[in-house]
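ok so for the tutorial part 2 we go from a plain amino acid sequence to predicted structure tokens. step 1 is just haveing the sequence, like this:
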Amino acid sequence: MFGKGGNGQGIVSMTEREKARREAPLRQVETYWRGLCDGTSVPLRSQVDPRGMESALENAFLLERIAPSMAKIRVAGSHLNDLMGMQVAGMPLSSLIAPGDRERFGQGVTALFADPAIVRIDLRAEGGFGKPELEASLILLPLRSDFGDMTRGLGALISHGRVGRTPRRFQVVRMHISAAVSGTPATPGLAAAEAPKPARPAFEVREEQRTFTPAPAPVGTSDEAQPVVQRGHLRLIVDND
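step 2 — the prediction. this is what the tokens look like for a chain of 241 residues:
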């Protein structure tokens, strides 16, 4: 660190500065995504133009949702290929995650599409022979398909350290999930489905109230009061005649 003055003011952490420099591709991808998003709706996949994030393409990738907590990589920059030692297009994104952390990682993928949400994850690579320390940062951003459903995603991953022997898989160190847009969700019908409903009793019976009106007396009958017929329970009468 360096600074000026004796009270600690103006001190800048070189570690934080270096981290900010390393994560520049993630910020560029997020900034580009926000430029497509008007704050109230998630951008369409067809709106994404690689030229808008040209200096981050090595770290960027596109996703497609294949299950509530799973997404596959459709297109990926060279950095993901380098980490896995193979072409990753068509592979589940969770292939980059250590098996023990995939359930937790799946929670972030679920939120990405269902909320929708922006998901930021700090990662640490599993160690082993020929596998030096390696840290990484990942960002996932939601996209809509051309049909309007929330099944696409834009992401970026950067790592710090020597890759070593591949494939490298990562453990989830921390995860931060935040709302992607404000106001009504972009998916049609989602707001109505999630709207709170008033509490109702578990079982409720309502009986319709009706006013009894006596039938008019037949023409030609006397004005004497007609007896009131009280109807009781139904009875079965058998006539054997």
